[in-house]
Amino acid sequence: MSRLVIVSNRVTVPEPGKPPPPGGLAIAVKAAFKNRPGIWFGWSGKIDDNPNTEPTVAERDNITYVVTDLATADYQEYYNGFANRVLWPILHYRVDLAEFSRSDLSGYLRVNGLFADKLSQFLQPDDTIWVHDYHLIPLARELRSRGHQNPLGFFLHIPCPPPDLLFTIPRQEQSLGVMSHYDLIGFQTDNDRDNYARYLQISGAHMGRDGQSYQHEGRVTRIGTFPVGIETAEYARDAEHAAHSDFLRELRESLSGRQLFVGVDRLDYSKGIVHRIEAFDHFLETEPNWRNRVVFLQITPKSRAEIPEYGDMGRAVNELVGDVNGRYGEASWTPIRYINRPYGREDLAGIFRLAAAALVTPLRDGMNLVAKEYVAAQDAEDPGVLILSQFAGAAAELEGALIVNPHETEGMAAAMKTALLMPRDERKSRHAVMYEAIAKNDIEHWVETFLNSLTESKKPPFMAQIR
Ligand code: ADP
Ligand code: G6P
């Protein structure tokens, strides 16, 4: 078996007793190493301005972690700049929040070159290389220009909007336009893949007859849909176990028989947290009978806090939570419990199992693993209800959810009431359909199908089809 080399922006070497940082990518990537040895390369999360510092290497289980620090200018221009103030907002359909500068784009391209330099010394010719997410789109070009001919795949964890939005990215040909150096590009949904295919057509690429491949500047690249999954069976076991923990007992007692709504997201404007709280406000306003009978627990660790748009959004949430709690709260009941820190996986799984409904209502999301974790965590005999945004990638798979439009406050408030009143039989049948979907398409399935497709894309019959 060839080694798997995974490259992603943020790589956290596990430490005992420390929960992994929140974020779907890291959870998915870690699972990819389950049955195969390999290297996980990326940024350590630390800043170091000494250009001679070598990457740090650490072995944990069958993963060799190779992490490199970033200099202050790289961190600002590449991470806080082009990746998270241009690509993240625009790929999440938020052109209004994007802030472009040429120095940030230069920093983005420079760091991709630096990553290729540092990774090169660890690569062997038969390694399979799998690059993840929007920070590292130009990495394949950088690796190819250093002579690496390995199979090279890319997976975009976040949405890919229609071409009109992609063309708002200044100088997009330098970032999105260099994807043809990959052998395979994976998207979360057919919609994302089709949007990218249309962008390619407009940009002059020659599409294959099957619509699943294209030719550009003499190279052939396959494109496909690979909806990311979770470790479904393990997650379900964790949740069952967690239901008996002291932590869960205390939480259950603190509710004094009230129903629980849960929201779990990084503090990110794409997650629709403001819209969600407004809907909960509307629900309490229009359904006074439910006041003091339901608690909304929103667990939201801070994310990318140095970026102004994140600070603005955090302040808006603080204000809104205070406003709702002030208006409806009583001495013995706080409507919204708002927490800004991560929880361990088992505790979260237990919270999901206890909650009567999960509010997973992003304005846009590549997939949203929280939605799948909530389904996995339920007691199949008495499951809770998933309230899910139509704009999360997960909505394409989770047909048993109550699908909502996060821009419609009344619709979301109505779904909250429906969830609380839903008969057990209906909850069970909706849950069964969803559990079947996430059991079939679990994380192992995702890894296998992507890597098999990457191997296929290097074989001659596929190459012949397009030429
Ligand atoms: P994103 O990747 O945009 O953050 P996802 O929903 O796809 O969104 O993935 C988030 C991952 O991070 C999930 O596995 C979720 O359990 C985890 N996570 C989110 N919030 C927390 C939290 N407060 N504590 C611990 N883990 C969290
Ligand atoms: C999302 C992105 C990942 C990112 C994660 C956490 O899942 O798709 O690429 O790692 O959020 O964000 P951060 O900026 O803290 O790494």
TrEMBL record:
Gene3D superfamilies found in the cross-reference section: Glycogen Phosphorylase B
BP GO terms, sorted: trehalose biosynthetic process
Record protein name field: Trehalose-6-phosphate synthase
Domain of life: Bacteria
CDD domains reported in the protein's UniProt record: GT20_TPS (cd03788)
Family classification: Belongs to the glycosyltransferase 20 family.
InterPro entries to which the protein is assigned, alphabetical: Glyco_trans_20 (IPR001830)
A Pfam family reported for this protein in Swiss-Prot or TrEMBL: Glyco_transf_20
A GO molecular-function annotation: alpha,alpha-trehalose-phosphate synthase (UDP-forming) activity
